[in-house]
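BUG: 3D viewer hangs when loading the predicted structure for this chain

Environment: internal workstation, default settings.
Expected: structure renders.
Actual: progress bar stalls at 90%.

Input used:
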Amino acid sequence: MNVNKKEDSAAFLNDVGVQQIIDMLNIMPNILFWIKDRDSRIVYANTAFLEQYDYKHIEHVLGKTDLSFTPYFLARQYLIDDDRVISGESIDQRLEMNMLKNGQYGWFSTYKRPLRNAAQDIIGSYGFTQHLNETSPLLAAVNDIKTATDYIHQHYFGSITVAKLAEISFLSISALERRFKKQLSKTPKQFINQVRLENARRMIIESHRPISDIAEACGFAEHSYFSKQFKALFAISPSRLRQQIQQTHDLN
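Structure tokens produced before the viewer hung:
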């Protein structure tokens, strides 16, 4: 019975196709949805995606990569993530920065999946992202720990203890840790690390400061630990990222 139901469901979905589902995603507000080929080039983007980057028609984005829409230090990470997805990985609720319509930066929650054909070969990727301040459930979740996350963003370069975060949030340490884990799928220490690393990546790309100085400026006392954490999050070492930026500038 269960097998028949599964087969009936698969047959039904195959008969429907995906266009109707894509059309629905096209009218959903505050959700940026896209489909890319194996080279990370856009083959479809919904209305919210176009509006985010101030494009009027989908023809203006087809065949382009994130390098055409966002600053290099952001686009580079998106492309690295695409490579991971093309290799078969999935990305769930990745908290990352993106550029807002006003030119400022905001936090987004992103999901990505491999796109497979009927033969189950990976032919591209698809995903969606939501700005936390535009999504009521996520906004409520972030507001639940907003005092702590705001403090981290403002003081990432200094010493931050979980005890201090709990104190300013009027929570016990265990309660704060539970809320971080539930709402962001991270511990407070992991979130601190990510904010520091995001800022370090921005500095590496936007400045010529020595990487060791950047590591210290972002709250990392040990350069080796910084490099290890940086590569774990971004799949590239700080020095290699700096080299790629220099090579790009030389080509231009």
